[in-house]
Specification:
By secondary structure, this protein is α+β, with helices and mostly antiparallel strands. It is 33% helix and 27% strand. The structure holds cytidine-5'-monophosphate. GO terms for molecular function: 4-(cytidine 5'-diphospho)-2-C-methyl-D-erythritol kinase activity; ATP binding.
Amino acid sequence: MSARLSAAPEPSVRVRAPGKVNLALRVGPVGADGYHPLATIFQAVSLFEEVTATQVPAGAGISLTVSGPQAEAVPTDETNLAWRAAALLADRTGLAADVALHVTKGVPVAGGMAGGSADAAAALVACDALWEAGVPRAELVEMAAELGADVPFSLLGHTAVGTGRGDLLTPAMTRGEFHWCFGTQRTGLSTPSVFRRFDELAGPSTPAVAPADDTELMHALRAGDPVALGKALHNDLERPALDLRPELAEVLEVATEAGALGVVVSGSGPTVAALGRSRQHALALGAAWTAADVVDQIWCATGPAPGTQVVTSVARS
Ligand code: C5P
């Protein structure tokens, strides 16, 4: 009888990172760098991307696979933000860029909920742990900002005020849980094209932005008052998103008629976020969308949710 040795599993690290909704998103005039100054309030929600980083032999390079809802819509080459995150971390630390990445999607793709940014945040943390790089948190945040304006918030999670490109963050105090339902469309909207339409619609007279415009929203968060929060939701990208996708108006209308406390386009869209009084009410809002046949999929979630964190880690044996 031949003895069979069971191979030890390769070292790996599994990390999860949340998607987000912008409770408020105020957009200023486009700068010379092509970016718009923002005053935004992010809330992380309980829809998570998972990235598993597994050790591969030296010289194997980076590889990437993707699974989960809408996985077929996600590139698996060096244009993927998770791949770019691993490459950037290797470059900055001088370590070899050898890793097999697997992304499990849990955030709608191209929906304005920062799923790709969550992949980048998760890949940074996963590779840092797998390669035992020990990069200080502040440097990870800098790399995150280089990868995309929403990536630092995915690292931080919970609720935060974002200024600059949305990457300069201050945590915001909140009480309790808020119950959301998100309605998504099969075809996404490209973030740059929504910002471009914003410029076309706003013209040269776009006023500067200030987070001070959202004091009522901040009060609602501190009080844990979903009714006041619903009234204060605001998104300057809603108009350009509706202009590019007029059928979104009906999505907003159906949720409002179904008694949502507030309804807003999430980020650059086309996802629409509806705030419910309770988990059941959020589900009922999703049911109203399904019955009216105005969204392709509904996703119920709560916020705030924690930022990027290691879920499991298989060490070298
Ligand atoms: O930073 P990220 O790659 O996520 O941004 C995608 C695009 O969205 C940018 O290239 C830019 O066109 C637009 N954007 C912007 N102003 C911001 C953030 C993003 O114009 N503050």
